[in-house]
Structure formats: structure tokens, C-alpha cells
Write a structure and sequence with these properties.
Elements lengths: L1 H10 L2 H21 L11 E11 L10 H4 L4 E2 L5 E5 L3 E2 L2 H24 L3 E3 L12 H6 L1 E4 L2 E4 L6 H13 L4 E5 L2 E5 L11 E6 L6 H19 L15 H7 L5 H9 L15 H10 L8 H4 L7 H4 L1 H7 L6 E5 L12 E5 L8 H20 L9 H14 L7 E2 L5 E2 L2 H18 L4 H16 L4 H14 L4 H18 L8
Antiparallel strand pairs: 1-3, 1-4, 1-5, 1-10, 2-3, 6-7, 8-9, 10-12, 11-12, 13-14
Length: 504
């Protein structure tokens, strides 16, 4: 504990911030000088995925992940109840998709078996709503001060997480507010962010000069893709102060993860937001440098040797990227899929919540990668959609899901808000992009059909959840019980592996 507190204290010093920023500036200049050499170019497109999940006990309540479970193929996340799965990068083709899906299924089964032995379960969901035994307010507010450092008891005891927490608390007067329909709360840490989990598809682009077109095209897809994925319409019921739960259901957003994450950070700096277009790859480095520094660490605190890999040569710059929270983010460096002596440049697609089944999570990975690839393969004019319209489309999807007023530019160059036209093109070009990468037709339909069925049947996880809670309320259940019954049914159905569009 003393070492962890010492690292947090050192991170918060002005001298650390000055030295960290100096190194970031120097490393950014070095990296920018490298970009024209083609060091970021690679032979092919690549895929990767991050997938977050939760632990619950035998009563379905939020639970701590034991160390024995974390010894498996998963990683810690912000809360002690969170885990994260990561796939290794693979070539974007049919074989690569098969490897991605197989790794996720294998790792999830392995971790689930370890969890079973500990009497808990790992759940694929976006916001767990059955409170822990002591209640959500007590759980999220359990914090103390030690040697001038705030310690949130249910936050993973990572110096990085605690440094981020304390840096933000120092900017916000020691508390952080959350305001969403039906909930007005203040907390002593950013831990409430850990209620929400996500998937983050990665698309490695082989040509750094072409990268801006892929990135800017992806911006225009954020709203329509998120509308298909919404899965966090409710928080734990004991966080609400309302007399009429039906009004909560009417007023709530379909994707609360977006405001929860934004509000956990943005009281200090507006770091979590919809991004701007870029003109060239070097501009992504400039934006990172300009972003406010949060929780700086220095390489020698954590790394002893003198390696020459990208994460070591650009250690502080890479560390700063970890607090550059845009809903679409560029990642430079990392292992290219060809494992050669090169780096890479990739899009990290960040707004999507965790989905009920592995098939649907991989389905969204295929949708994102196929869509961006397919649109760029034909020079689709979606790239001309202005940022303001794309941003409004995104936040409309946050609030209204599939009912949102979305913005799009058709292949003929016409601006439209017609959702039928939008989704016809969205799935057409997603399939086009997958075919462009040699993905077999059977694989395309295996992963896109369950996602497209959400549009044709007007069913998303958030819609299903709200409908189930409404049914239970209409049957006379209390709000807490109605939500708990919905959540229990969600878990049971998700374990079956049947996609949400087939849940009756």
C-alpha cells in the first residue's frame, strides 16, 4: 500500500508534470518525424477487440473478482468487480475473424470456469443493476484518505487508477457529480464510472497516408452504429430518487454509459467527447500533446530495463494516450499483425457497450470494421458529413437509440435522416467491406445477421430491458424488484448464447 500511495503522491507533484510534459513533447516530435518514413505502414488491415465484463455473486449482486480468477486470460479494470478480455491483433479476413471469435470464446470459458469455482459468475453486460450487498450508494462512496491520497475501497488498487482519481478530485474540489434522468448524486471518486462496461473494436489501417479518410469516415458512423448497440438504459435502482418509476423509463437514455463516463471525467477537463476530423496522421499526435495532462507517470518508476520497442521508446507519450478519452481514438504503435519490425496505426472505436453474447460482440466488431472498410473502398461521400451533424447524430443515439434522428450522406451524395435509407446503406457497405477483405459469405451472415435483425425487428438490448421492466411494473412489482427480475432474465438468456433479437 505504501508503494502505491507513494506513486500516486509522486504523480501529483508539479515537478513530475513538468518533466512528463517535456518528455511527451520530445517523444511526439520524434514520432512525427518518423511518420513520413512509412514506419507505420503494414501489408494488410488488422483487427483486435477489447471486451469488458462484470462479476456477480450467486444472488446476482455485483461482486469482487477474486485474484484466482484474474490469474486467467483477463485483466483488471477500474472497479474490483470488472474484468477485461483482449484479443491479439489478427489479419482482417475470414481466418482472422475466426481466430478473434475463438480466442474470445476460449478466454471467456476459461475465466468463467475459474469464477464458478469461486461462487461467482462473469456477465457480459453494459451496466449491472442489482446492487452489491451494502447498496450502490455505500459501495460507490466507500472512500478514505491516507497520507493525503483518496483511496476508493472498491477501486482496483492500481497506482494509475488512483492517480487518475486523485488528479480529477483535485480539480473538482474533492467530489464528482452524476446527473442523468432520475439520478442526482455526488461521489467521492470516479468509481461510478465502473458501473458501465464496453467493447472497443480496433481496425488497423495499412497506409498511414490514407488513415485520415478512414478515421473521418468512422466519425460519421458512430451514431447509427451506437443506436444498434444500446444496452445501458438503467443504473442500479437504489441510486434513483423518484416517485414514478414509469417516468424514469420514459425519460431515461438508451445508452447511459456515455454520460456516466463523460461526467466522471469532465468536471476536471473536457477530455471525454466527440472528436474532430483530422487532415493527416501527424495531427493525431498533435491533439494528444495538446490534451490536458492527467496522472502523469515517469517510465523509470515502473520499467527497469532499456528495451527498444515502441511502448518503451515513447513511454510517456503512450501513457498519456491512456487518458486521451475521445469516442474515436487513434492508437499509434503496438504490434502490427504481420509481427514485423514495424509499428502500426489503428482506429479504436470506443462508444459501444458490451453485448449479451460473444457472437454479438464479434458481430459489432465485424460491423465496424466492414463498414469503415466498405465505405472507404468506394470513396463513399459519408466522409463529407460535417462534424456538427455527426455529433448531434451520436448524442441522439445516446438518448433515443433506434428512434434517434440520425444523420447520413448517401452514396449519391444526398444528406438524409431517413433511418431506413441509412441502415440499408450501413449493412450494404459493411458486407461490401467484409467481402473486400475476402471474408466468406457464411462468416459475414453469421456475424452480421444478428445485428441487422435488431434493425429489422426494432430490438436492441436497451429496448428489451426497458420493455421487461415495464411489464414487471405493470404486473405490480416494485421498481427494485422489476429491475432485478429483468436483470436475472437477461443473465439467463445471455448465457444461452442466443442473440437479443431472438429473445421473446
Amino acid at each position: 500500500m505504501a508503494d502505491r500511495i507513494d506513486l500516486v503522491t509522486r504523480s501529483l507533484r508539479d515537478a513530475t508534470r513538468r518533466e512528463f510534459d517535456r518528455r511527451v513533447d520530445e517523444q511526439a516530435a520524434r514520432l512525427t518525424d518518423t511518420l513520413p518514413t512509412g514506419r507505420l505502414d503494414s501489408p494488410t488491415f488488422g483487427l483486435g477487440l477489447e471486451l469488458e465484463a462484470y462479476a456477480v455473486d450467486d444472488a446476482g449482486r455485483l461482486a469482487r473478482v477474486p485474484d484466482t480468477v484474474l490469474e486467467g486470460p483477463c485483466e483488471k479494470e477500474l472497479g474490483v468487480h470488472n474484468v477485461e478480455f483482449n484479443t491479439d491483433p489478427d489479419q482482417f479476413d475470414g481466418d482472422g475473424i475466426a481466430v478473434q471469435a475463438a480466442q474470445l470464446r476460449r478466454d471467456y470459458r476459461t475465466v468463467q470456469r475459474a469464477a464458478d469455482r469461486e461462487g461467482i459468475a462473469i456477465v457480459l453486460d453494459a451496466t449491472w443493476t442489482i446492487p452489491p450487498p451494502e447498496g450502490s450508494r455505500a459501495y460507490l462512496a466507500d472512500a478514505r484518505e491516507t497520507e493525503g491520497v483518496t483511496i476508493a475501497e472498491n477501486m482496483t488498487p492500481s497506482p494509475r487508477y488512483r492517480a487518475i482519481d486523485n488528479d480529477i478530485l483535485g480539480q473538482t474540489g474533492g467530489s464528482i457529480s452524476l446527473s442523468v434522468p432520475g439520478v442526482e448524486r455526488t461521489f467521492p471518486s470516479i468509481l461510478f464510472e465502473s458501473l458501465a462496461s464496453s467493447i472497443q473494436p480496433h481496425l488497423q489501417v495499412p497506409d498511414s497516408e490514407a488513415y485520415p479518410r478512414y478515421y473521418n469516415t468512422a466519425l460519421g458512423t458512430l451514431g447509427p452504429v451506437l443506436a444498434l448497440a444500446t444496452n445501458s438504459p438503467l443504473l442500479p435502482p437504489d441510486l434513483y430518487d423518484v416517485d414514478d418509476p414509469h417516468r424514469v423509463l420514459d425519460d431515461t437514455y438508451h445508452e447511459l454509459r456515455i454520460p456516466v463516463f463523460e461526467q466522471s471525467i469532465n468536471g476536471a477537463w473536457e477530455k471525454v467527447r466527440f472528436p474532430r476530423e483530422i487532415r493527416h496522421a501527424a495531427e493525431t499526435v498533435d491533439r494528444l500533446v495538446e490534451d490536458p495532462t492527467c496522472a502523469p507517470f515517469l517510465r523509470e518508476w515502473l520499467v527497469d530495463d532499456d528495451r527498444e520497442a515502441f511502448p518503451d521508446l515513447f513511454w510517456e507519450l503512450n501513457h498519456k494516450r491512456g487518458t486521451y478519452w475521445r469516442w474515436l481514438r487513434t492508437v499509434i504503435g503496438g504490434q502490427p499483425v504481420d509481427r514485423g519490425d514495424r509499428w502500426s496505426i489503428r482506429i479504436e472505436y470506443r462508444p459501444l457497450p458490451t453485448q449479451p453474447t460473444i457472437t454479438e460482440n464479434v458481430g459489432l466488431q465485424c460491423l465496424v470494421a466492414g463498414l469503415v472498410r466498405g465505405l472507404c473502398a468506394v470513396d463513399h461521400p459519408l466522409v463529407t458529413l460535417d462534424r456538427g451533424a455527426a455529433e448531434r447524430s451520436f448524442y441522439a443515439a445516446v438518448e433515443d437509440g433506434l428512434d434517434a434522428e440520425l444523420a447520413w450522406v448517401t452514396v449519391d451524395g444526398d444528406r438524409t435522416t431517413d433511418r431506413t435509407a441509412i441502415y440499408e446503406e450501413l449493412f450494404e457497405f459493411a458486407r461490401r467491406g467484409l467481402r473486400e477483405q475476402g471474408v466468406p459469405a457464411a462468416t459475414i451472415e453469421e456475424y452480421l445477421d444478428p445485428i441487422e435483425a435488431r434493425w429489422t425487428d426494432r430490438t436492441t438490448p436497451s429496448r428489451w430491458k426497458l420493455a421487461r421492466v415495464t411489464d414487471h411494473l405493470d404486473a405490480g412489482r416494485r421498481f427494485d424488484d422489476a429491475v432485478a427480475e429483468m436483470q436475472t432474465e437477461y443473465f439467463r438468456r445471455a448465457k444461452s448464447g442466443v442473440p437479443i433479437a431472438e429473445w421473446s
